[in-house]
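User: Can you predict the 3D structure for this chain?
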Amino acid sequence: MRISKHIHSCLLVEEGEKVILVDPGNYSAQEHALNIQSLTKLDEIAITHEHPDHMDIPTLKELVTKFPDVKVFSTPSVRDLLANEKIEVLTTNNENVQLNPAPHEKIWVGSPVANVMVTLFDRLTSPGDSFTFNGSAEILALPLQAPWGTMTQAVYSALVAKPKIIIPIHDYHLKDEFRREYYIRLKDYFSQNNIDFRGLETGEIIEV
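Assistant: Here is the predicted structure, written as structure tokens:
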């Protein structure tokens, strides 16, 4: 499996001949972190929930225009929102994408929206804006920083989930020098618990 991160929670995942994009949000768009023109194949898009840092509608329109056969998976509320944009959204699983309800963590303004934990190829789990999960595939995309959660919550949730590998996501708001320092400290901590923490820079590709 090849994985690259394109700021915040946006991951491009390749397994065999299949290519899936997770949570292409507005930060990825405004920082030009995802080069759509360079993509030559895209089979599926998985969206954990409707917040703009996970779902940027102009980006989705561009992707669907370039790849008209791409399948989009998400929640019923995302399906209803994107119906207005003439984008079809599936809310059931297929052989590559599994969706499991995972409640969005409490936020201090407004009400939490529907959120799903996405598992790709039975190997990588991305929980969106949730720490409420008791297990993970062997690779966990772990949200590190948010108005709705802390890094300490993230760490303890990961220890419960017991993945073999962790890829950090949801950390756009961290200043780069501190983010990289946290990556070093987290790698050391998780290694003591037999978990391999892989800090990723924008566009960097790892194979697992």
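The domain at 2-207 is CATH 3.60.15.10 (Metallo-beta-lactamase; Chain A). Helices lie at 26-30, 57-66, 76-83, 151-161, 176-191.
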